[in-house]
Amino acid sequence: MELKPIKSETDYQSALKRLELVFDAPTSTPESDEADILGLMVDEYEKKHYRIEAPDPIEAIKIRMEELHLKQVDLVAEIGGKSRVSEILNRKRKLTVEMIRNLSHKLNLSPELLIADYQLTR
């Protein structure tokens, strides 16, 4: 097991190939240790070079609704009425602090994600 820092795209690709080979190694083996270390190194490189922006609050809500198989009507209690839910999800109205609290609890989303600014449609 010869590990070296990932400093370039070539190093990154090599690390990914090696990680693929040792990924399913049995625990408590040198290959398993190598997979753990490679995983950390690859993750760190990806955080620096392949940043993924968080979705805006409305997209986050829609994604979570899809994951939980929820419909708009399932958010009535948290947002306040079918038409209000529609206005929020269609970006006609902004989320209020109370809605953010309720949605954060129901959808298990971070309040920090839900308070981010987003554009309304006209």
TrEMBL record:
It comes from the Bacteria. GO terms for molecular function: core promoter sequence-specific DNA binding. SUPFAM superfamilies: lambda repressor-like DNA-binding domains. Signal peptide: none annotated. InterPro entries: Antitox_HigA, Cro/C1-type_HTH, Lambda_DNA-bd_dom_sf. It holds the Pfam family HTH_3. Residues 61-114 form the HTH cro/C1-type domain. GO terms for biological process: regulation of DNA-templated transcription. This is HTH-type transcriptional regulator / antitoxin HigA.
